[in-house]
Amino acid sequence: MSLEELKQWFTIKHMLDMLAEYRSFGVIPGIVLPMAEAFLPFLPLFVFVMANAAAFGLWKGFLISWIGTSVGSLLVFLLVRKIGRQRFFSFLHRHPTIRRMMHWVERRGFGPLFLLLCFPFTPSAAVNVVAGLSGIAMQQYMLAILFGKMVMVFMISFIGYDVVALIRQPMRTVFVAVVIFLLWYIGKKVEQRFALHDGK
For residues 122 and 124, what is the distance between their CA atoms, to the nearest angstrom? Predict the structure, then answer.
């Protein structure tokens, strides 16, 4: 499958069609898609969350996406914690960048992780893996995931719950584009700020 075909596959319209086709399964497809993104980070979580909000409504769609992405992130964390300490994966612990990130997570704890996970463009898959390799307490990371993902998923759900309005109202589309850009920009600034402080 080419890149163009992949782009056409992962559109909000196609996701809505798929959710409609498998509506007999209820909310399961809506939960499984965000969960899968935790294991396959190239999948567009943004699209899945917007499609859920459009298909199930704002609050139900938000809850479905939040459950899916939170469970997926916690599973990745637990899997990495389980197998990441085996001898075969010892090279990860020796990698300078990964070691620096692990120490950062251990020192900073809940607050910075929560802030990073609030933003849609934070590479949460990398955060899950590094946290799993680090010594952060599982309860602390679970709280950061649950609350950070709650904020992030609600922001995306609020943007995407009325996709038709985005198409019919160009000004709303412009507003959404500006909000998405601001989220990306602020997220990058937060990442840079933490990285700068870590280097001091």
Answer: 6
